[in-house]
Amino acid sequence: MSKKKRLITSALPYVNNVPHLGTLIGCVLSADVYARYCRMAGYETRYICGTDEYGTTTETRALQEGLTPKALCDKYYKIHKEIYEWFNIDFSIFGRTSDSKQTEIVQDIFLKLNKNGYIIEDILTQPYCENDRMYLADRFVEGICPNCGYENAKGDQCENCGKLLDPSDLKDAKCTVCGTAPVFKETKHLFLDLENLKPKLEEWINKTSKYGKWSNNALSITKGWLDQGLLKRCITRDLKWGIPVPLKGFEDKVFYVWFDAPIGYISITAQAFNDWEDFWKNPEETELIQFMGKDNIPFHTVVFPASLLGSGDNWTLLKTISSTEYLNYEDIKFSKSRGTGVFGDQAKETGIEADLFRYYLLRNRPEKGDTQFFWIDFMEKVNGEIIGNYANLINRITQFINKFFDGVVPEINIDSDSFLNKMDMNKYKNEIINQFEEIELKKTLLYILDICSEGNKYFQDCEPWALIKSDKEKAACVIANLCGFIKDISIFLWPYIPDAVERVFGILNLDKEKINLDYIGDYTGLSGNKINKPEILFNKLEKKKIDELREKFSGKQTQVKTPEELFKKLHLKAGRIIEIERHPEADKLYIEKVDMGNGEIRQIVSGLVPFYKEEELLNKMIILAYNLKPATLRGTESQGMLLAAETKKRDIVEVISPDCEVGDIISIGDITPNNEEITIEEFFSVPMTIKDYAMTFMDLKLMVKGKSIKVERVENGKVG
Asked: 40 lies in which domain range?
């Protein structure tokens, strides 16, 4: 009987979040290890992932960075791709949910759900921030969980107790963008009728959870959903950046990200493979195994399969779900803004090989409970286990062959007394296969290292360095057996540390195609082989370097910067508005021409229509964020941003108008203006405020020509 095909997915990362070590082990890295095992075990395997690109989160971040949502996604997709490539993640494809295939397949599934009676209309009360003038994504609302009392629960799910929520469920809800309380507006939306789908879904869950051997965690979370009663789930949102709803009366809406994102697994496969239906519409011959953190479980065991079941097509549905708990950092949470923890784009700057990060993360995989990344533990585990056990054995054997046998592997004879006969590597192979099939990734890794330690023990017991002097033939037998042994151990370890193993095969002068479980116990291509020059696989991690890295990623280094060091990234310059007109494509925007001195005229776009008449702004002095990267707002380029003071509630917005000449520099202290372009995110990382009617940064007044910058109507507030 031929093996089934295997579809392997890892949860799609939000495009505008740079992954940290915890998110890497939670899905992408774990799935990569399993996919590599499946390939070397002979399964036809597709490992699918990509960036989740639609939704309010993307719209909001794009606004902050002065980019279009598409440009923002292009920028962060590249960052994600480079990170995963550095970590040796071997996707079959790493795609994007903004691709046209996603629109095609999502709309097709929706129309079939609607035709089959599983889509209903209802009124939804949505959070709307009057301060930011936008509908808020559920995760952009925080408050107190009504179920457990957790104070920082998100509007879609409480991270503390796992209960799925709507923003209106939260007590003391606040907009996470500006901190003001949102209002809730009623709008007509479309819902997936989960209650009507429950019989199909429950039958499938009861059967698949046993057949697929779901973890207790996955099963209890899914059963919890069923026991609470499946309510209708809204699948549309009032946004622009998303997949349009192909239904009359709802053309101005897009699909909610948690309806369309899981379908991304299908569309991303279709982006790269014409035979995608041979995998996704072939449940008799294909198994779907999905990797994710525990917070994503119900969307993959309830919402996604319900959508596929309701469509009526013969979809390949989830067989096995592998979920993890959380990996934390040194007893605290990963936070890029606070500088705590290692993020994917920073790992490659440490000078430590990707395989060593892979090893420790997998050695420390949070399978049964939360685990921690500790730098000292990282050093000890790496030095003592993967270097001290495996890499050291590789080096000792290859150096011995190079020195005493002219770089030629002696004939490997397996008789009744030989080491390889006693070890029986095929017996170990069968146990390793069993453990991989159960997705026991950490257990399998430790099991392989235990086997490896037997090789080290044999080397020590035989003392080939002494034996070579008295009995070269016997020493050759010892080393030949050990050479076959390290070849097999390397194959076992390939899913975990692929780059190191491929280098070992290069040293042994073996074809990388033999990194396959079929070659365990096969030494025909190794005997008599002329090896290449041995090399050190890994350098031992030194405590001094580890202490430096621990300090660097502790968040403490950000506290020593002076206000001047932080402020010097900005270039603020005075200008005068000489022309102004309403933006033809936006009700609340002006287009202004600003005289910056020395004949330079800049065009900017500002959202001041609700606060100022045109004649009030004409000829007004302003402060311009002069080195801000140009952005396109509703089709018009803005070459900078004028600064305004605003109260906390934003009921007063006042243009900051300095008493100075065109072209004068506004700063703190004696700072040379920065002429390098900065992003909107970098600009807002220097938060200026209004204190007692004066413009300040970290309690230092901003000055121009020796005078402080004053406003008239905002006593205390922020600058934006």
From this structure: 5-107+258-324
